[in-house]
Amino acid sequence: MQAYLFVHFKEKTSPEGEQVYFGLSRDGFCWEEVNGGQPVLWAYYGDKGVRDFTIIRHRETGKYYIIATDLSLSYGMRNQYHHSWDEIGRNGSKCFSVWESRDLVDWSEQRLVQIGDEDFGCLWAPDVIFDERNGDYVLHWSSSHRKNDYGQKAIFYSRTKDFVHFSKPEELYRKEDSGVIDSAMYEENGKYYLFVKSEDNPAKIILLESENVTGPFVRIDAFDASMGSVEAGLYEAPTAVRLEDGRWCLFLDYYGVPGAGQGYVPFVSDDLASGRFVRSDEKFSFPYGFKHGTILTIGMEEYERIRKHYG
Questions:
Q1: Which of 12, 101, 255, 267 has a beta carbon 3.0–4.6 Å from 250's, enabling a disulfide?
Q2: CA–CA distance, 179 with 144 (Å, rounded to integer)
Q3: What is the pLDDT of residues 64-103, one digit of tens each?
Q4: pTM for the whole thing?
Q5: Where are the alpha helices (DSSP H) in the chain?
Q6: How many angstroms separate the CA atoms of 225 and 230, rounded?
């Protein structure tokens, strides 16, 4: 029997919201808080706040890695970014924050990994997928870039085998008529499926398909149709997990109301290739509003270990 770990942050204007939180579930729909709803890890370096998490288990070493955007709005907006999203986009961190663990309860101290150079703006929303053909991991994220004067964002990627050494960033996907952010990629039957938030035309989540991890990607029109009733401009941060019965559950982060009322909404599909997802709010519960994260499938032994360790 499998269980699920959701690594996320909270939508709060105080610094404790922009830290590492865990949620646990035995079915992917009903979630319980971990550590009394308090952070399990804190960021003490870089911007001293973290957002937009991904988590992965290394296939060879068994180590777990949490990777996050190095950004604090609580501190940064009031200080070095002067209340300007544009300034973050141009001058934000070129690093990701990383933690590692062998058991999901004892974690290393935060370390900063610089991947972007001076041509990049802030590096946002990392996600990781294993490349079967190359035998390495592809870390991808969204950034603005000097080549278009830090205008519309694109998705970039870097390769790694150890989450210490990373290749020079390359472009993964750019949408011609709008910026794209919040990439999340999954493999199904030898093909790769990339969810991204399109910032316009439409201002919604879109789904793309490719034979290779690094593209080229083709848009799946059926997914656009299944998202037809979803309000434009109110959802971001897609993340998905394959449930024990083989179905996929896609979570979209709703930000249409202020503060703690924000959080994820689930959509269920039999497969990614069809692009057909059905909204399933009535099955979903979480003890508080939670923001941009990633779900890791775990075993019951890991589930019980986390519950016991954090109380």
A1: 267
A2: 9
A3: 999 999 999 999 988 999 999 999 999 999 999 999 999 9
A4: 0.97
A5: 73-76, 85-91, 221-226, 300-310
A6: 10
